[in-house]
Design a protein that fits this description.
The protein is α+β, with helices and mostly antiparallel strands. It is built from four helices and eight strands. It comes from Thiopseudomonas denitrificans.
Length: about 140
């Protein structure tokens, strides 16, 4: 990573960037329907944006119950540890809020990435939005 920084985003003020990233990754690349991607939990979630020189290339969200989701990085920026920076920020914010357990629903192909961050599988594989997923849990020490 060069000058990539992760910050807490404002759902309303940063909405265009949050939507642009998630639409490109989930809707355009992965074929998730808009109805599946956008839900009522976005308004109450803590959103994160990864940026370099004011260009947003990644996002994630943290729900009040400690569930981390919608982790997405634009294709051109993958492999540069943007996803890891987003996850570290979300985990740190969850812990700061006293959420000692963080959960997520991982696409199966990304499970090893989350395992490196301390998550472990807690479910069998299942299909969500046409994509194989697995539920994962991380417990803070």
């Amino acid at each position: 990573m060069s000058n990539i920084e992760v910050r807490i985003a404002d759902w309303h003020k940063d909405n265009a960037d949050l939507r642009r990233i998630r639409e490109r990754v989930f809707i355009d690349e992965q074929g998730v329907t808009p109805e599946q991607e956008w839900d009522s939990q976005d308004a109450g979630a803590i959103h994160f944006l990864a940026e370099e020189d004011d260009f947003a290339m990644g996002t994630a969200r943290l729900l009040p119950d400690g569930c981390i989701g919608r982790v997405s990085v634009l294709k051109e920026w993958r492999g540069l540890n943007v996803g890891e920076a987003l996850m570290q920020a979300a985990i740190a914010e969850a812990e700061r809020r006293g959420l000692q357990q963080q959960t997520l629903t991982a696409q199966v192909h990304a499970a090893r990435f989350y395992e490196r961050l301390g998550f472990r599988a807690v479910s069998d594989e299942f299909i969500e939005a046409g994509i194989p997923h697995i539920d994962m849990l991380r417990t803070s020490e």
